[in-house]
Amino acid sequence: MDTFDKVALITGGKRIGLAVAEELARRGVHVALSYAHSRTEADAAAARVRAAGRRATVLKADLSAPDACSTLVAEAAQALGRLDILINMASVYAERPFGQVRPADWNASLDVDLRAAFFCAQAAVPHMRAQGGGRIISFSDWTAKSGRPRYHGFVPYYVAKAGVIALTEALALELAADNILVNAVAPGPILPPPSSSQEEVRAVEQATPLGRWGGGIEVAKAVVALLESDFITGETIRVDGGRHVK
């Protein structure tokens, strides 16, 4: 895909989303960003897009509601004139011991991480067909791609991210005839959570063969590569510094 003057919708525009939005703008993409609670971060990402000379819009959406997914896609396409790229980044990442997982905890992860990716894709596909094709990129996790949960206390999150891989493969088959390529990115140690201690940060570095955190730009590079490819579909690409082999 030639990305110049294309339009992308990124769900979840903070942290890694900011880096992705900025990198897309550098390649000529206009960007719509959605947020649930982090308006400040979404505005910061939009400012980066505009600084690169591209148009940007910021939209509030509660993606745990299926109707909100279709509304978001429609608003993004209306605001920027078309829709060629969907990047499903919105995610719920919360630790809770297995015995304390409530229905609401289960639904929070499955609804946002997995179900919203499906309904946003379903709403986006007609816009992409109108343009002769498009790209859908969802976000999984390096643990799900590796088939190794690794960490206690994240059952709903792990199941949702494993589901994203299955969704990616199924949509790739469904949409190939429409020239809509569907892939996923599975990040590893990219950015430390804000609450991480120095000891925790160093422990991850030591467990990663490349010996460092990747930074948002490494995920953005993977996204760009998948957008520009015209022959990769149904794949989930780990960006984890080799974490899965150690």
H-E string: EHEHEHEHEHHEHHE
Structural class by sheet pairing and helices: alpha/beta
Poorly predicted runs: none
Per CATH, the architecture is: 3-Layer(aba) Sandwich
Please tally the helical runs, counting DSSP H or I stretches of 4 or more residues. 8
**Proportion of residues in helical segments:** 40-55%
The side-by-side strand order for the widest beta sheet comes to 3-2-1-4-5-6-7
CATH class category: Alpha Beta
How much of the sequence lies in strands comes to 15-25%
Structural shape: globular
Task: Provide a quick synopsis of the model.
The chain has a single domain, classed as NAD(P)-binding Rossmann-like Domain (Rossmann fold, 3-Layer(aba) Sandwich). Helices cover 47% and strands 15% of the residues. A 7-stranded parallel sheet has the order 3-2-1-4-5-6-7, with helices on both faces.
Describe this structure in words.
The structure is a single chain. The protein has helices spanning 16-26, 39-51, 66-80, 103-130, 142-146, 155-175, 198-207, 216-228, and strands at 7-11, 30-35, 56-60, 85-88, 134-139, 180-187, 236-239. A 7-stranded parallel β-sheet has the order 3-2-1-4-5-6-7, with helices on both faces. The mean pLDDT is 96. The protein starts with 6 loop residues before the first strand and ends in a 7-residue tail after the last strand. It has 246 residues and is of the alpha/beta class. Helix 1 runs parallel beside helix 2, helix 1 (16-26) crosses helix 8 (216-228) and helix 4 (103-130) runs parallel beside helix 6. Strand 4, helix 4 (103-130) and strand 5 (134-139) form a beta-alpha-beta unit. The chain has one domain (7-245): Rossmann fold (3-Layer(aba) Sandwich).
